[in-house]
Amino acid sequence: MKMADGSTILRRNRPGTKSKDFCRWPDEPLEEMDSTLAVQQYIQQLIKRDPSNVELILTMPEAQDEGVWKYEHLRQFCMELNGLAVRLQKECSPSTCTQMTATDQWIFLCAAHKTPKECPAIDYTRHTLDGAACLLNSNKYFPSRVSIKESSVTKLGSVCRRVYRIFSHAYFHHRRIFDEFEAETYLCHRFTHFVTKYNLMSKENLIVPINVGENAAPGESEA
Amino acid sequence: MGTNSGATAGINNKPVGGAGGAGVLGGGGVGGANSSIGGVLSNSLGGGGSGGLSISGLNAGGQNANVGGLIGVGGMGNVGGDDGGNGMVGGGPNNQQATTPQYTIPGILHFIQHEWSRFELERSQWDVDRAELQARIAMLLGERKCLESLKSDLTRRIKMLEYALRQERAKFYRLKYGTDPPQLNEFKPSNEDAGLAGEVATDSEVPYSSVSNTTWRQGRQMLRQYLAEIGYTDNIIDVRSNRVRSILGLNNNAEHDGSGGGLGGGLGSGTGGENLSPNINGNESNKRASETEGRHTPAKKVQQSIDEIIVDTEAAVMANFEFLGATEMSDDDEISDDLEMVATDNDDTDVKMAKRAKSGKDMLTEDLEADVGEQLLNDMNLMTEEVDGSLGLGELAQLTVNNESDGAYDANSKDGSGGSAGGAGYRKTWNAKYTLRSHFDGVRSLIFHPEEPVLITASEDHTLKLWNLQKTVQAKKSASLDVEPLYTFRAHTGPVLCLGMSSSGETCYSGGLDGNIECWQLPSPNIDPYDCYDPNVHSGTLEGHTDAVWGLTTMQSNIVSCSADGTVKLWSPYNKEPLLRTYTASEAEGAPSSVDFVRNEVDHIVVAYNSAHCIVYDTETGKQVVRLEAAQEMSGNTGKFINKVVSHPTLPITITAHEDRHIRFWDNTSGTLVHSMVAHLEPVTSLAVDAHGLYLLSGSHDCSIRLWNLDNKTCVQEITAHRKKFDESIFDVAFHATKPYIASAGADGLAKVFV
Q1: C-alpha closest to that of B267 among B293, B248, B281
Q2: Which of B499, B528, B530 is the best mutation test for A, with the most CBs of A within 10 A?
Q3: pLDDT tens digits, B353-394
């Protein structure tokens, strides 16, 4: 976006940038990114370009460490889920949703506490996101964003399972919010596809009816 | 009862008859508080003069006329002629007072009481004035004496160095020719020596003043304690030093020779305004001055105290000092205990320096370092360099550097004593202590609580987080000095770009890419991170901007924000109509990029625009007050883009951080560029000034933060703090207002706190 001098492209959001110009700069090929945050940059760049192109966003570049790839994607999911939480805050109150439920089948207990607790849905949402933020930024489990320990990669699955419940709660209890949010971000789409692709959650847990097959079909031909 | 009767009598506001007039005149004089009363009284006396009345000080008739008017009592007019001094209430009609109003005794009493209290008030005011002036005289006297004693101190040092040099030369001579040099023990240096000594003195002028700075710093701190004891609080001292700083600020950056040249200049710029504080303490400085003067006058006595120490410690050294002769031990008795402390301290240094000089074939910095205190060490280092400098006659550049850092120490120690910031006060090196990791994306802004060790960060991940540095949540998922956030503020639907906090620390405001400003009530800093959701934390949204809000700053209950929609808005967040005013510049200026309140001028804000100009607005009138621009400097302003503007907390100075790697300083009154410096390797993105206005912190996309001494605009410390994401690195820096914390926020999603 910012052309400073000659051919150098400086990818900066200077103060005063209009919101439509935020992060609007020419894509940078992953191989040219020399930052330790290259994967995040790359993923965000793809999402910025077209959030609906879930398949492309989830296509792992060659020679990419899969652990890092999954980790950075999960960070991005949790980050974008803040948007859903903001919307839910307005509507989902402890009086209307006293428990974290999706279908009537399960009541989810909040794992953020010493002993799992039956938090109201909004608290569950916030605690889960806060806990995920702490875990994914933990110096102990994820000290580096360039390489991830194998033991830590296993943590990603449980984070996925927990944050997925936010989608499912929104879908079953706050459908309008869910639909609006999904139309903008394709986040549940992308998430479902992500966990399926990397086998982070079992299929029977994916209760939000997203037609993965439809989106996945062209993807599978590539992959 | 004289007054009473007088009052009763004193109802005539004009002297009656010729005799009366004479009486009035006879008593004429200025009697302070009583004079007017006297005037009133005496009027009644008529021909009798002032015989019966004790109060005879008179004012002019005109004032009496006033009095009559005030009293407003009629019919009591007194022809006091016959009554003489009795002060009897004359019932007779007063033909000259046809218009005189009725007088009543209570009315008169009331009047007199009133007048009395008024005079009392005036008198006490006068007393206060007098005390102030006296204090000022004492101050100025002390100031003079300080300078005198400084001069003598310097002279003493020069003598010492001359001596050291002679010793060196002698040694050199011995080593080279194997014989004692001629004239070794003569006190009067040979012509050659004299010439060299002179040379040394001139060459080392700068280091001399810096050494004395160190000495003065000790003395100053001590005097500051005395002052505190006698009730001169830091505030008063600060006011004075601020004044001096502002004076110095005018000939900004003039460094040593600029502000008065030579000795005075060194004193002024090196040690700031604090030199003045000792002066208040008359006694001490008197004693000290007389003492030093006593030493000073006979040149030989300069070394007397050194000799005294030497007697105690090293006879050999003493032998070397013999030529300095006369040790007047009796002088010491005159020195008060407190001063002895100071003196001993200094002398100690001097002796060490003397030893050094004596054995100083080479640079002997290391071996002595072990056994001397830090402060002394500092002295010594400077001293060594002096010696070396004078011997080698060079290295001035190095000395300058040292001077600068010396100034930094100075300001630092001042900072330590001024704020609650602890610290032994000497060199403060900031070290990263806390890493705040919990954001998923770049941290755009951070702000400290005004009192608590608490801060808030705002990130591109759409959230704000609250951190308590005292609650390093050791638990489950974090390593040692990581801090876990206590609370996550969610309301923005896009990246959060800027933060502000109320002066009470109860409320904070955040501006986002979504164009909204959210208002938050801070949860308790001891909240459980996984507590229930309290919707009241989010206490409102200020809607009005139609594009990203990039700048936000607070002053008392108001906040001012700037947005990519081209406007700057002033808000009073909890009003019914929160938006107070909108300021819009011409199209040519582009969008505002940053905004700050002008801290030393109420109702002024300074706004930086894309055009690389700053404009100061009056918030009340909405008028442009001054435009900060420098034609030649800013010509072709592409790339000079301003990333951040801050106002100096006490001086009329605006500081701007530029895309072209510069930090620039502007004079708010004239709108001119005061100083410009290349500060970083890449664009400067953020600035913060500490609460005392002594230090500037800057952050840049070159991944480093730098701490600057505002006095001499030198970099005190550089810390590499963050990593790059795209071409961005550091977004914000901050000072804690009352605690020794600084912090930086980076594009890598981390915030760091340094102590």
Answers
A1: B248
A2: B530
A3: 444 444 443 443 344 333 434 444 444 444 444 444 333 333
Model ipTM value = 0.89
* Chain B contact set for A8 (CB, 8 A): none
**Measured between CA atoms, how close is B404 to chain A, in angstroms?**
34
Nearest alpha carbon to residue B754 among B735, B729, B730? B735
The alpha helices in B100-232, defined as continuous H runs, are 105-177, 191-203, 205-229
Q: CA dist B5 to B9, B33, B70, B120, Å?
A: 6, 19, 19, 22
Q: Which residues of B fall within a CB distance of 8 Å from A41?
A: 725-726
pLDDT in tens, B690-729: 988 889 999 999 999 999 998 888 898 999 888 888 888 9
Which H, E and C letters describe chain A, residue by residue?
CEECCCCCEECCCCCCCCHHHCCCCCCCCHHHCCCCCHHHHHHHHHHHHCCCCHHHHHCCCCCCCHHHHHHHHHHHHHHHHHHHHHHHHHHCCCCCCCCEECCCCCEECECCCCCCECCCHHHHHHHHHHHHHHHHCCCCCCCCCCCCCHHHHHHHHHHHHHHHHHHHHHHHHCHHHHHHHHHHHCHHHHHHHHHHHCCCCCHHHCCCCCCHHHHHHHHHHHC
Kind of pairing between the strands at B604-609 and B592-597: antiparallel
CA distance A198 to B425: 57
Q: Can you tell me the distance from the alpha carbon of B211 to that of B709, in angstroms, rounded to the nearest whole number?
A: 19
Q: How far is the C-alpha of B560 from the C-alpha of A63, rounded, in Å?
A: 49
Is residue B85 within 8 A of residue B51, CB to CB? The reply is: yes
Q: What is the pLDDT of residue B40?
A: 39
Asked if the model's pLDDT at residue B419 lies above 80, the reply is: no
Other beta carbons within 10 Å of B346: 19
3-state secondary structure of B672: coil
d(CA B709, CA B405): 9
Q: How far apart are CA A107 and CA B206, in angstroms?
A: 77
Quote the pTM value.
0.57
Nearest residue to A155 (alpha-carbon basis) of A75, A85, A47: A75
Contact status, residue B367 vs residue B360, Cβ threshold 8 Å? no
Average the pLDDT over B573-595 and give the result. 86
CB nearest to A18's CB, from B492, B494, B547: B547
A15 closest CB neighbour out of B484, B494, B550:
B550
Q: Residue type at B500?
A: G
Q: What is the pLDDT of residue A64?
A: 85
Comparing C-alpha atoms, which of B374, B429, B472, B525 is closest to residue B740? B429
- The DSSP string of B72-86 is --BS----TTTTGGG
Q: How confident is the model at residue B632 (pLDDT cuts 50, 70, 90)?
A: low
> What residues are paired with B287 via a beta bridge?
none
Distance from CA of A89 to the nearest CA of B (A): 8
CA B312 to chain centre: 42
Shortest Cα–Cα distance, A139 to chain B (Å): 6
Residue B696 structure tokens: 């500037």
Residue B735 burial by Cβ neighbours in a 10 Å radius (0-12, 13-18, 19+): buried
More confident residue, A171 or B395: A171
Model confidence at B135, pLDDT cuts 50, 70, 90, reads: very high
Task: State both tokens at B293.
Answer: 């003067």
Pick among B440, B497, B537 to test the A interface (most A CBs inside 10 A): B440
Do B552 and B509 contact (CB within 8 A), yes or no? yes
pLDDT digits (tens, 9 = 90+) for B517-561: 999 999 888 888 888 888 888 888 998 899 999 999 998 888 999
Predicted confidence (pLDDT) at residue B2 exceeds the cutoff of 90: no
Residue B220 in tokens: 């100053």
pLDDT of residue B561: 92
Q: What is the pLDDT of residue A23?
A: 86
Q: What residue ranges define each of the domains in chain A, with the CATH number in brackets?
A: 97-222 (1.20.140.30)
